[in-house]
Amino acid sequence: MQFYYCAKYIFIKHNSIMSNQPPHPESHMMTHGYNPDWSEGSLKVPIFQTSTFAFKTAEDGKRFFELQTGKRKLEEGETPGLIYSRMNNPNLEILERRLVLYEKGAEAACVFESGMAAISTMLLEFLKPGDLLLHSNPLYGGSDGFIYQVLPRFGIEILGFKPTDTKEEIIERVNATGKADRLTFMYIETPANPNNILIDIALCVEVAQHFSSPTKKVITACDNTFMGPIWQSPLEMGVDFTVYSATKYLGGHSDIIAGVCMGSAAGIQRVRKLRSHFGGMSGPHTAWLMLRSLETLQLRMDRQCQTAQVIAQYLRKHEKVESVYYFDQFADTRQEAIYKNQCKAPGAMISFDIKGGEAACFAFLNKLKLIKLAVSLGSTESLAQHPYTMTHANVDEAVKREYNITDKLIRFSVGVEHPDDLIEDLERALKAV
Ligand SMILES: Cc1ncc(COP(=O)(O)O)c(C=O)c1O
Which atom of ligand 1 is nearest to the CA of 258? Predict the structure, then answer.
């Protein structure tokens, strides 16, 4: 019996991709970066449920640590070895290589045990005391909490901007702080959770460039959770990092909590190093589940998006629905222009206002049967929730007012069910309002 533990997994260069054309990622999610010969012919990647890896010799152990700790660079023909699952594990490495196929513009990926672990590790790697962080509004409640409750403890100053701000207005906001020279990082989330407001990615890249100099680059990152790598590619637009709650579409089955950060090889190397210090990497079982999920990512997201368009049309015509926030129609021309410039499809997240506020929303939610009343999104089953009292309960009232997060808002994540069955469920529940 022969097992191959060494990190050949890392160095398989598109082994399953035969042509020079850019690959269709979905065709390679079953095979890329893995060879069944390594594991007794096992067609699927086994779960490497191990904390540590045996070295053949002490010299090997020394070599592997030299590479891991950056004491020396990989030599021609040399393969790095697996050491310890906090540092490297085949499931994690195969998964990271497959994620790179999906994320246009990415050279490397780093997988975490949650979306918040990915976001917090990335921010802490690039920020230091005295720095200024600029961010879009509104943000997912957990990201908002980390930025406002944790980062200031490390001497980091925070400045938010509005989705409606022009480039000049954002620049003016930064200049007004008197700390423009300390602007280090620009963090955006688009579409913003919970009501699908778009932030202009191209404009944000220009703002970051405006404050960059030959000696200091303002780093940009985009939380791409709502659109996933299929419907929006921020790295191709000049953003440095994308981050994901992989708990959502990438995982896609409401059975894992995970996160991903992607970007250039050099940038991800830095994030990975801090991940190793914090110990926030994904475990082999979670990584394996995500490998399985990626095989159907395109299928799931295509189907979810098609169904969402049918549901949005239905909701727009319903007498008890006041407004629908979805990208088949736009409240203003600027949002439409942003959508056309940066999104490839309208996605599968719909928010809508029900006439009558909290009581009406609760009556609706309590009557749903097929659609589950739960937070989270991007899963195979449809989920609905009331952001004002649930996911955004902790967000400041003034912020909620400003961004239209009211007690009449429902956030609806469309799953893979048949649209007719979803509409039947919605119809019954809206009758209760
Ligand atoms: C847009 C967005 N970013 C980040 C997160 C955090 O991800 P996780 O719950 O996997 O830590 C979430 C979670 O809901 C989210 O919706």
Answer: 10
